[in-house]
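Example 3.2
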Amino acid sequence: MEISISETLGDITVREDYGSVHDGAYISNHRLMSNHDSVTSEVNTATFDQYFEGANEFERSSCAILATDNVDEDALHPYNSREFVRRDVTAAIVLTQERRTKQTSTSSPASETGACRDWSQRDSEEEIVVVMRRAAFMKIYSPSFEVPENSLLEMNERISKVMTQTIREIIDAQS
């Protein structure tokens, strides 16, 4: 996933460690540097993720959990507020497999252009859908150099959109 996000954002990603912890759980450390509108930002996070097959203590069906938090201090790679904008990210994503009644679209001339769709449900057919629940918080630190306010706002909005789109693309590719 970080490769897709890095390619889209034009980041330089350094993944320091990626190892299995226990029962398919993984923990990793990522340092990302992004350059957008001639402003370079840096992020240093620790990430934990795990996939749970079938019913488990969290859900009635299979689910995946990803949690990430910022690394506040790193002796090997300290933040450089003289050259980069520091971004702290804390996020959690839970993907679950749910069943729902299959929906079909009845076509009308307007629906082919995307203007109007009439959704109806088939009572007998069910489908499996992936539901994503997420919460993300980002703090952007004021650097010791001048940065246009619109660049800071764009920095905040851009990463959220790209992460969500990347997760959707991964799910769609596996469907």
